[in-house]
Design brief:
Layout (H helix, E strand, L loop, with lengths): L4 H22 L6 H7 L14 H12 L13 H8 L2 H5 L6 H9 L4 H19 L7 H24 L3 H14 L4
Helix pairs in contact: 1-3, 3-7, 7-8, 8-9
Length: about 180
Amino acid sequence: MKVSREQVAEHRARILAVAASLFRQRGFDDVTVAEVMKEAGLTHGAFYGHFPSKEALVAEAVGQALPVAPDTAEPRRRAAEFANGYLSVKHRDNRATACLFSSLGTEAARGSADLRQKMTAAVRSRIDHLTVDAGGDTPREKRRAAIAAWSAMVGAMVLARLVDDEKLSKEILSETRASLPFA
């Protein structure tokens, strides 16, 4: 039975969404192609009709799941609002849709050049977004504050997920938020 172009596109989108979710939850190495395809409701053999390798799937799934540059037609989300959502228990506990940087950053650092390029572009975009509201008198000071804030947020999320003490986890999130240069 021949599959239409629309169905192929739907299958590919489903594979990418499932892969991104599973990768966030368990990491790249602990997710198999067979698991992704089963979760997507497709056969393992169909994978190679969409991707040449698991590494290609990783790069594309992560690239698609990364935040895009804010749309200029939409109101820009203020850095304070972003930080409040990012440093929340809800974000900490929802790994399937959580930030790729805090979920997969250390693994992505060892990934393909394509994956790292996509992650780099997303890091630049986030720093640019935060720079607008960061403290400082000069563009250089504002950028420095934005880089420090973004680094603190990602690091805090990693630590908040790592510790097995709920009170300490919440303290890491709240104290990091209190230290940021956004009102």
